[in-house]
Amino acid sequence: MMLRYTGGVLFVVLLLSSSVVHSRLILDDLIRLPFDHSSVVDRVFGRGNDIDDHSVGTRWAVLIAGSNGYWNYRHQSDVCHAYQVLKKGGLKDENIIVFMYDDIAYDIENPRPGVVINSPYGHDVYAGVPKDYTGEDVTVNNFLAAVLGNKTAITGGSGKVVDSGPNDHIFIFYTDHGGPGVLGMPTYPNLYADELIDTLKKKHACGTYKSLVFYVEACESGSIFEGLLPEGLDIYATTASNSVESSWGTYCPDQDPTVPLEYDTCLGDLYSVSWIEDSERHNLLTESLKQQYELVKTRTATSPFYGSHVMQFGDTELKQDLLYLYMGTNPANENFTYVDDNSLHPSSSKSVNQRDADLIHFWNKFRNAPEGSPRKFQAQKQFTEVMSHRVHLDDSIKLVGKLLFGIEKGLYVLQTVRPTGQPLVDDWNCLKTMVRTFEKHCGSLSQYGMKHMRSIANICNAGITADQMAEASAQACPNFPSGPWSSVHRGFSA
Ligand SMILES: *[C@@H]1O[C@H](CO)[C@@H](O)[C@H](O)[C@H]1NC(C)=O
Ligand SMILES: *[C@@H]1O[C@H](CO)[C@@H](O)[C@H](O)[C@H]1NC(C)=O
Predict the structure, then answer these.
(1) Which residues fall within 8 angstroms of residue 493, CB to CB, at 6 or more apart?
(2) Is 177 a catalytic residue?
(3) Considering the entire predicted model, what is its pTM?
(4) Of ligand 1's atoms, which has the minimum distance to the CA of residue 202?
(5) pLDDT digits (tens, 9 = 90+) for 139-174
């Protein structure tokens, strides 16, 4: 009760302060009109560094880490680091909305309690990060409501939403596991591409932004926008990977000699640290979205053995915009003008497939634990459970395919990839129904099982009915699996 009351007061204070800011903006705009020309010149040539240049409207940001668990350290650390860059860029806390489970900094496994780093020699990025939506409040519902600016639809959390106006610029950054057509969340259900795109269309219809930039790190993240995000919404999106490949964790133990020995989890993600480290270093009045896209694309795909194809979607003419419009710029970087390639510092760090990063953690935990200790036993148990649930999921989905389409054709249908530019599935409700049906019989898809979303989508695309799917799933999984990785105690993922 006490907590609720305090939350209410905070809420009122936020409301008050945001209306004060708005009236000041209007005033400033009027006064500044005659100087528009000089502010453009300043922006182009990087001479001015006026963070309070309101001619660009208010900058809003939504940052979201879709995972929890210490083995997923890197997603929350990406988000915290992104916050620090935006904060230094001049965005105000009232305009930055952070979604993170917040179980990393004080996890018993964290060698530096209360500290989160996003690179081997990085500084703490945790201090000061607003805890708008944490724990069980990190939900699809709250995320979409926050983007839309719909306060009444929010449950729990700080109540902060993107309360934007027509001249404002919005930046959204999502990082986590994903799969074809879906982005993971630390709570169920997951975020499906159709709901995300619908929300963006609604936001556009409200006329409450000038332009919106969306950066997404997740496996198969291209599938979130491919064939789904129309042009004309004033949205420019880039994704860590195309629709058919994994994205990559980086600064991982074993892979990278510079990661401090006490860390047995990856510290960042390749696409995420690429843009964050670039933005952190430069005068963003001198760098365009396009330049950052090219640079991130190169760094994310440098090795023939790992890495992914960074993609762009939506209104690509927006990429002429300067990063400053969305991220502000750190006055301390005033003299660090962006020139092509000047932040591609070659890194010795190899990268790890998102889907194997948890294995790396459990494996390192196992290897480093003293012989015969409870810790060693626990790590071994975790490793075995993860592995066996993976095998179970892979086998079950294959068997479902064979039962539905025959031994010969089964795998072929499941693995079909639609031509470039087509969405993953036509009927999203079918996809969600099929996911629930599969999970009812075979256990949770879990983080790893999101990779099978394409197979399930193809089952819909082939016109299979829910009854046929239920029958095949029941046959493929006569026993409901046990163990934390297979349980549906969190509910269905769709
Ligand atoms: C905001 O959310 C509430 C509750 O979900 C809903 O009834 C209302 O229509 C939403 N408003 C807008 C503008 O979307
Ligand atoms: C950038 O360079 C100018 C000219 O040398 C100098 O006056 C200014 O202090 C520098 N800015 C910063 C943030 O170091």
Answers:
(1) 182, 188, 189, 190, 435, 439, 444, 445, 446, 450
(2) yes
(3) 0.88
(4) 14
(5) 999 999 999 999 999 999 999 999 999 999 999 999
